[in-house]
Each structure stands twice: as structure tokens, then as C-alpha cells.
Model the fold of this input.
Amino acid sequence: MAVQAEFIKSIPYFAGLGQAELDAIIKFTFEKKANRGEIVLFEGEPAEILCFVVSGAVKVFKTSADGKEQILHIIRPGESFNDVPVLGEGVNLASAEALGDVTLNIIKKSDLETVLRGHPQVALNVIQVLSQRVSHLISLVEDLSFRHVTSRVAKILLEYAGDGSGEKPHLTQQEMAAMIGTAREMVGRSIKTLEEEGKIRLERHRIIITDKDALKEMAGIT
Amino acid sequence: MTEMPLVDREKCQGCGLCVSVCACGTLVLAGNKVTIVKVEACQWCTLCEAVCPNGAIRCPFEIVVEES
Done:
């Protein structure tokens, strides 16, 4: 299927461009489909393509040496990924996996450079997109380095733990994130960490505190 | 009763993103709104909640302390 001009026009990278500029960009853009679970980018491989999600959702993540996964972003339709290494030099900074069946629009690094040289407005738009990326990453760094998110998740779990009679409100990961001022991804990661450490157990829609004392210690509750 | 993700039909814009990430076929679009059809199949992966751009799906957790 051909790249859709309407979609290209709707994404922040190409906002406010004239028809001639859009035509030039569409010429360099191609479509790729990926199935659920398919890795569309591998961390560490040469950064050669910039991707835009047309439909579906993509998870951008890093994996540590011991196999732990940190989700950096979930990319929704109209958003892009792999911008930073493509616009700079080097390799893909993270991997990307299709969360369902997805359709991507892709521009090769060399073609993007041609577009940027020919169309300064695109370069200005790119600066704005990158600025938002930096802001997001700074807040993630803040969470990772200065705050003890897992400790605060532990505290929330203790505060909202009921006896199963339903008197305490049930919480989504989004709500927990909002309560402690962090990103949902960080809450997900913290819950996984607590589970790996044997302090909690997950049973479908239930979080079971298995080591209350350890959780209290973590949360700084004496 | 099996707990299910909670859908706010007012907020749902029918984009189908949640349906596309749902690996167990629990969600479908019906009448341009997301609907839960396979109650037992849901694994509570919470991806539908994570991807929804409108906050229309909630996957709340009940928190309990294990009885010793």
C-alpha cells in the first residue's frame, strides 16, 4: 500500500509544510508492516531508519545484561521512534517491538538528510520533536537516579492493601504513577522488581503482598 | 465473577489501538467503541490501558496481604 499523504501531514515532523515539500517527503517514505511480537529495531545495530507508527503500537525498550527490560516509550499512531541515533551518529539506542499488528512509515537516514537539507521547516520541526524527547528522558533520568520509585511503590501498596473485603480502592498502574509523581513505565518496572525479589506476587488483577515486613522496610515505615 | 478491564465508553474514541495490542482477543470494536467479548481470556497484561491515548481503559489491581 502506498504511503498516505494525509498521515504524513498529520505527524509533528511534517506539520505546516506545503504540498511540494510533502510530495518530496512522501517520495522517500515507504511502508512496512510488522506482526505482534516482531522486533522492528534491534538495540546496538547501525541506526539506518526513522520510523513513524501509522497504526498499532510499538514498545521501545532497553534490555540489561541480566535480561531486565526497561520500557522507554510506547509509540502510538502519529509518533516516531529511533530519531536520536538517526539524526546523530551511531547505533540504535533501544530495541522496538510491535505490540500488535502494526503499520510503519519509514525514511532511511540518508533520505532524511536529503529532506532536511532541502526543507528547513522540517529541520525546525525536528528540533521541536527532539526537545520533547529530551524533556521526557530528563524526567525519566530524574526518576531513575534521584528518587526511589520502588520504595514509593512499596509504600502505596502498603497504604492500599486491604483484607480482600473490597473496602480499599483498587488502583491502576497509571493511578499509582500519578500518586507518586512518576511515569507509568516506572511503576510497571517497580512492580516487576518487587515480584522478582519475592516481596509481592501477581495474580491476574491482584497484587499480593507476600513479605510485608520487607516492604515496610523498603518504604521506610517502622 | 471474573474481573475485567473497565471501559469508559464516553472517553473511548474507537481508535482500536487497545484491540490491536490485545494478544488474547478479549477486546473488539463494536459500534466504534471498545467492547469486552472474551472475559475469561483476559490475562490482565494491562497493555490496553498503557496504549489508550484517551485513558478510556482501566485495569485496576486489588492489593491484599497474604495471610500467613
Remarks:
- The mean pLDDT of chain B is 91.
